[in-house]
Design a protein that fits this description.
Elements (H helix, E strand, L loop, with lengths): L19 E3 L4 H10 L3 E4 L14 E4 L7 E4 L4 E5 L4 H10 L2 E2 L11 H6 L16 E7 L5 E5 H11 L8 E8 L1 E2 L2 E11 H12 L4 E6 L5 E11 L10 E2 L2 E3 L23 E2 L18 E9 L3 H9 L2 H4 L3 E9 L14 E9 L2 H15 L5 E2 L9 H7 L3 H11 L8 H6 L5
Parallel strand pairs: 1-3, 2-3
Antiparallel strand pairs: 4-5, 5-9, 6-10, 7-8, 7-9, 11-13, 11-15, 11-16, 12-13, 12-18, 14-15, 17-19, 17-20, 18-19
Helix pairs in contact: 5-6
Length: 425
């Protein structure tokens, strides 16, 4: 049923302009809505900070579709409905003895929304969440259910996975799975910048997943989160001192002033993959809640220079920042992935919820990162020009042709897509 009224995204910085909001209870109902609509966009959990999900027409939540979480042990895959959150899927998988290779920092986000925007976790050998997708079903502009797979559709499939919601409304995805594994999590404090710059490669190679948190107020990283595999061949336990940083004497939260109880367990206590890879627990508000977010991904080989560039404007960044996170992401072959064909360093900014104060600083950050070829995260705030974005994505023309073939009349387009993937490309 459609309803009147305005929805906002999770952070409240985007008020959706949809004329009608729908929550179909079946795929058949969704097909009828799409076929009848002139301008349609899908909505997941609303954790994007850009206007990527906005539309002046019909906004369709996939949260009401029947939940599917079906493991195929022989194929080593799990098929999930689009609205399922990672925090729902992960315990189900673990109970069956399986895992995903990677998870984002918060388990609150939907599988389809995260994959469509190239959202990621951390780790030199871990691709973004979309790299696990091996098949997907979506409703295209005529209301037809179309299935695409890695095996059957090859390069075309690689163009569709990080699809920005522009190709159709995804109803289900199949993801690669691996045997369940354990993780130990350690936190270190006050890593000197010079140690980071000198040993950057070794630092990010030191654990399955590594995250650095800083406020750019001093030449030190506030916290380093090391997530190590736990099991028969455990790596050595890190010492009390690590590259000049000291082991935390108790649990920590990445954002200053927030309770550590909201974070996943630390101090080297082993636990299941899904209770350690995210930073935040599902039963608490993730991160700070009242915030804005931006993120940029650039080649790992240029990371030290990029970090120095941001440190040089720390006095401008710090007053409007809650916390910044630095991670690595493995290269992939998905056309619009921010890690397309490059092992990447991701520099994330969680800002205070004050758009007029943040936007000038954001422009300065982008100016400093531009020489490093920084690609903005599609679901976060950015002001990078369409021309610059076009130069950063070699396969953008191919994506535009794919978009025209699946949605010739632009039913799933919106202002965001028109800006960064213009129809006349």
């Amino acid at each position: 049923m459609g309803t009147s009224g305005r929805l906002t995204n999770w952070a409240g910085n985007v008020a959706f302009s949809a004329t009608r909001v729908h929550r179909p209870a079946s795929v058949a109902e969704l097909q009828r809505l799409v076929a009848a609509g002139a301008c349609v966009r899908a909505l997941g959990t609303g954790h994007s900070f850009s206007r990527i999900a906005d539309t002046p027409g019909d906004l369709v939540s996939v949260a009401g579709l029947p939940k599917i979480m079906k493991v195929d042990a022989e194929a080593a895959t799990v098929t999930v409905s689009a609205g399922v959150r990672y925090g729902e899927l992960a315990p189900h998988l673990h109970a069956a003895g399986y895992a995903l290779r990677n998870l984002a920092s918060l388990p609150h986000i939907s599988v389809a929304g995260a994959c469509a925007t190239g959202t990621h976790g951390s780790g030199n050998s871990n691709g973004n969440l979309a790299t696990a997708v091996c098949a997907m079903e979506m409703i295209t502009a005529g209301g037809d259910a179309v299935t695409m797979s890695r095996e059957a559709d090859g390069d075309r499939f690689r163009g569709a996975v990080v699809g920005l919601g522009a190709l159709g409304i995804v109803t289900s995805l199949s993801l690669d799975i691996v045997p369940a594994f354990g993780i130990r999590q350690y936190v270190y404090e006050n890593l000197p910048h010079e140690q980071l710059y000198e040993h950057l490669t070794d630092i990010f190679a030191s654990a399955y997943s590594v995250s650095l948190f800083t406020d750019w107020r001093s030449p030190r990283i506030r916290q380093v989160w090391l997530k190590q595999r736990a099991g028969e061949h455990d790596p050595p336990t890190p010492g009390t001192r690590w590259y000049g940083a000291l082991a935390a004497d108790g649990p920590r939260h990445p954002v200053p002033g927030l309770p550590a109880a909201n974070s996943t367990r630390q101090l080297g206590v082993p636990g299941p993959w899904h209770e350690r890879l995210p930073h935040f627990r599902l039963d608490f508000t993730p991160s700070a809640g009242d915030e804005l977010q931006s993120e940029y991904l650039l080649p790992q080989r240029l990371a030290a220079g990029a970090l120095r560039a941001i440190a040089s404007i720390g006095d401008r960044v710090a007053p409007v920042l809650r916390i910044s996170e630095i991670r690595t992401v493995a290269a992939d072959d998905l056309w619009l992935s921010p890690s397309y064909r490059q092992d990447s360093m991701a520099i994330h900014f969680t800002w205070i919820n004050d758009v007029p104060a943040v936007m000038p600083v954001l422009a300065t950050v982008e100016d400093r990162l531009a020489p490093f070829g920084a690609r903005p995260h599609w679901g976060k705030l950015f002001t990078t020009s369409p021309a610059a974005v076009s130069r950063l994505y070699d396969r953008l023309p191919d994506f535009q042709r794919l978009l025209r073939s699946l949605d010739p009349d632009g039913k799933f387009r919106n202002k965001f897509i028109d800006t960064y993937v213009p129809a006349d490309r």
